[in-house]
Amino acid sequence: MGASEPGSRALEAAYRLGELVAGAGWAVLTGGRPVGVMEAVCAGAKSVPGSLTIGILPTGPDGPVSGHVDVAVFTGVGDARNAINVLSSDVVVACGVEGPGTASEVALALKAGRPTVLLAPTPAASAFFRTMVGRGKLHEVETPEAVTALIEEQLSIPRWRAV
What we know:
By secondary structure, the protein is α/β, with parallel strands linked by helices.
């Protein structure tokens, strides 16, 4: 998850995260739009052969979709699709927390009990979310590599391997 107008650091981290998640054989699920973190993480994932990207879009089929999304789910529910994003995810990763949409996804993830990872959060975002930890577990890391290590090692989500 991440802002549609993030800073350059979040964009670079999102692209690398997409590469690493896809390289582990995990699917990437985003808001599916052709902007910001959504576009960057899907582009990173699609640089890995055999990757799967899923976009949960706020609009109907006439809305813009990232060219890096394999499966587009048109919800037509606007920002309420944030709940779909969270509830469809095994782990929620916020790549920077630079806007209210991302903040709402992190809050929903914590409330729903989803493992939640803040990737390179600002000190203010970190402090804010530490005050509201619900049933979910909140993790903070500084690099995309640390995200995938945390998912695999601490959250025990194994890499997918074809047989």
